[in-house]
Structures are given as C-alpha cells and as structure tokens.
Write a sequence for this structure.
C-alpha cells in the first residue's frame, strides 16, 4: 500500500508544480511584479527611452529559468509600469531547454514564420512568451510580455528597441 501512496503523492506534486510556476509568472518575473514602477525596483539602470517606453538593465542580474542560466535581461516599462523582459539565449542547447520547459508548462506553441526568423508563441492568461530564432545568424531572443500593458504597444516597436539595448549573450 505504501508504494501506491508514494505514487499518488508524486503525481500530485507533478500536477501542482507546473501550475505553481505558471501562476507565479502571472504575478511577477525575476522578483519584479508586473505593473511595478521602476523606482520601486532595485539596481535598475536606464538604457534607453522612447516616448512612453523605457528600457533598463539590472546591475548584477542573471536570469535563471529552471536550470538554465540565461544571463542579463532587459526590462521594459510602459508608462512607468513593468510590462516586459527580454533576454538573448546563448546557443541552441539553451533554446531546446527553454522550448521543452515552456511546452511542459504552457503546451504547444503557435509558430509564426518570418522572412529572417521563426517565432514560437505561448500564451496563458495575462502572459505571452515569444522565442525568436533568426535564420541568418546564431541569435535567439526570449521575451515575456504582460498582456494588459503590452497589448497597447506594437510588438515590432518593442523588438527594435530591445535590439538597441540588450547586452550580448554570455557564454
């Protein structure tokens, strides 16, 4: 009877952990609550500003998702509220890990093909996650968006600004 109880507990844990991760990301990313003002976030360094969007890096920042160290992020604030984070992935191994993890938590992504890239998109409640892979170079970008704020912006505009700000991926 004891092995059956252990199996039931293990199955319950497996069901709870994915939903816990998914619900946490609905509230915050890297300890920053969605909608938070930049003045309330420690170690932010403004990198650029255009109209009502400002981009920051974070001093001594290392974004870790699962067991993958992604490196420095770029944090976006729209009208003074945290709405996005972007990070470059270092290599195909990290891309494969993130796709596997995101598929586990969010299911199969929507795939969009572009002239120079492919984009995988996951959506759950208020969060959209995009993984962009460029065809012409070994470059991979992961973005998390808080939809109540980011839906008001043109995402291509966001991508262009990110390219100007993001630090290079660190090996």
């Amino acid at each position: 009877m004891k092995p059956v109880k252990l199996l039931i507990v293990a199955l319950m844990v497996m069901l709870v952990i994915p939903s816990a991760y998914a619900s946490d990301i609905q509230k915050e990313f890297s300890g920053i609550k969605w909608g938070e003002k930049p003045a309330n976030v420690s170690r932010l360094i403004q990198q650029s500003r255009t109209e009502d969007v400002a981009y920051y890096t974070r001093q001594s920042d290392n974004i870790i998702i699962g067991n993958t160290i992604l490196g420095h992020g770029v944090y976006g604030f729209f009208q003074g509220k945290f709405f996005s984070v972007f990070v470059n992935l270092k290599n195909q191994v990290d891309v494969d890990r993130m796709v596997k993890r995101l598929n586990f938590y969010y299911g199969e992504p929507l795939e969009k093909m572009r002239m120079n890239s492919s984009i995988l998109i996951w959506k759950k409640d208020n969060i959209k996650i995009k993984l962009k892979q460029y065809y012409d170079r070994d470059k991979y970008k992961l973005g998390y968006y808080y939809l109540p704020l980011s839906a008001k912006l043109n995402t291509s505009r966001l991508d262009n600004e990110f390219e100007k700000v993001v630090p290079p991926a660190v090996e």
